[in-house]
Amino acid sequence: MRVISCYSMKGGVGKTATSVNLAYWAAQTGIRTLLIDLDPQGASSFYYRVRPSKKKLGNRFFKAYEEFVGQIKASDFANLDIIPAHMGFRNFDIALSLVSKRKNRLRKVLKGLKKYYTLVILDCPPSISHLSEAVFTASDLVVVPVIPTTLSERTFEQLETFFNRYDYDWNRVVPFFSMVEAKKALHKSTMGSMRERHQQFLETVIPYSVDIESMGEHRSPVDLYAHKRPANKAYYRLWKEIFARVRKT
Amino acid sequence: MKRFEPRAWELTSRTAFDQVLTKIQKRFAVRHQFNKVKKVVVLDNFDWTLFHSGQYLINSSPKEFCLQTPEGEFSLKTNKKPPLFWSDFEVGEGSNRIKKLSPLRALQPIATVRFGVHHYQILNDDEKIVVRLKLVQHYSAETQLSRKIIGLHLEASSLLGYEKEFKQVVQSIKLGEFNPSELPNVSQMLVAQGVKIKPIKNKLFGLTSTMRAEMAVSKMGLQLVEEALEHQPGLLDDIDTEFLHQYRVGFRKARSLVSLLKKSLSPEKQAHLKELLVSVFAPTNQLRDLDVFLLDKDFYQGLLPANYKSDINSLFKRIQTKREQAFKRLKKKLQSQAYRKNIDTLIVLLEAEPEFIGDNASMPVLKLAQRKIASRYKKVCTIGASIHPATPDAEVHELRIECKKIRYLLEFFAELFPKDTVTKLTKQLKALQNVLGRFNDYSVQQEFLQQLADREKAQGILGAINALVGVLHQKQLEARSQVEDAFVQFSHPATVRSIRSLTNKKFKGR
User: Fold this and answer.
1) In whole angstroms, how far apart are CA A121 and each of A16, A139, B21, B397?
2) ipTM over 0.95
3) How close does chain B come to A52, measured CA to CA in Å?
């Protein structure tokens, strides 16, 4: 079993759209996939039309594996299950701050799922916190969408500093350019300079696209309503590239 | 993870299902999808080996095949059209399974199944699927106009995390009071369609221990000839090599039966039958020899170093051509007036009322079988005991033939004896026969190649033939050196005990 997290310190960079479409393509490839929506806003759960179960979820979340498994719901697609976002997820940080060896907690809980799934995708909330650290420890790859702007560039470099300071493996970080507008000169030049400094950027670029924006309206992965559109093809290529990388881990 | 198993029912009518659907629609939205009527061709070999092992090879669109097994479905791809061999499919679990069950036999269409599948997605307020329903309509085999629904099944599948909704839907279905039943598999669909299922080959003759010998021999002979003739159409169409092989097995056994139990028939009848059986059997020899050689291509290629490869390939091409010629000759023979007349006479003779003229004609068949097995066994022991490293090959061959005779006798009369004893004895005999068989095969193969060499002019091919003969000769010597040991194993006291209990006769051990 491999764990891929979609992570960014910044919000609104296309993180959820990436999680949703990557999970979809993984499942379509025949890989048994679990998408965990860790973002309390629950956008990826919303896209898959899955609501959290009403069962209360307390501080015990990371202690009880059974409770975790009890949250799993089937999506409408073969090979794809989902753990929907839960308002209780707000308390992750508190929960994690209370337990010892917190960085390893998530990793341990996920380990129990390997008899059911080959791939787990984590859709993370935009912040840097105890939860993010648990995510970094648990992930084989940390996929980071980056909008090619000055501000995003700064954020990405802050992440690098953080990884170095706390001794996380920077090689596991796989950035790619997201919401790219080919006409913008700034986007172009930023991409060029960032690619030079950070060799690990993926080839695939996800364009800024109405088709991705309208995911909320359709409540489904892009492939279902915009099969032939460039945005859909870009997500498929992104999946293929990430799949090739995750196999090597 | 707690998952609910799918539930399925046999429905009484489409109307009954519509009523159920109305009930479900009071609570949930329903999305409907109908896949048009599917025509599916079921393939199997002549013996329906896949079918009888609970596996079904299905062809639903050109080039796309699927092997349904109790362990799951395996998709298979090929560019060829039936008849298909396992090796015609892309390598994978599916083709491996077929190889195990049907290593030599070709697969051909055995029946067609027509069914329509309706998918119903049961949705909640978010338009999320919470339950899936599958309605399978099985149609009769007639043409479109007169086609009838002959089976209607409904299956409900749960989705993880939506167990409550599943229970609610099942509750609504249960109001229809349908019989719980699994979705029909291919076998059930064929039965429902009235397809005649090919039975598993019956090895019994229906003998009783007191049946008089002539009657028993005629009955058995007739069955063997009929079994052989079942393979004739497939042989004429040249579908696979097993048709000729099984055709020969039947006739060879019939011939052995008539010779081994000679005196159960009148001398005239026996001689006539023997002559007819030989006349039918003999013309098939050449084709079978060529088939066997071609089937063993990998074996021969493995005997020689890689630099012989192209010469071996040329040799096989040559043999393939010879094979096509031999097939044409045999086909002509099988379609001739003379052949048909021979077969008719053969059947008339075997079906004729017993004359009870032969010396043993009236003897109870069990007694005769015991006597025959005992005397053959004695003969095997006499020859076997005299074999030493310098014994001429001819005597080793004689031992092989005597062993074969006991083996046939055990097979013919198995149903008259305790199964365990026959199985045990057959196993002991088989070990010896394997060694003798190898010894003989290597000798036959050398002879076969030698004949080719006599008429071969291409130096390369001649080289390959000579090299093969050399290797086969070594192998034959090796097998020869194992004969004595194998015989000692066979004449073990356990074998003597088995024979004694079978025949009620006393024998000296080794």
Assistant:
1) 11, 9, 37, 71
2) no
3) 10
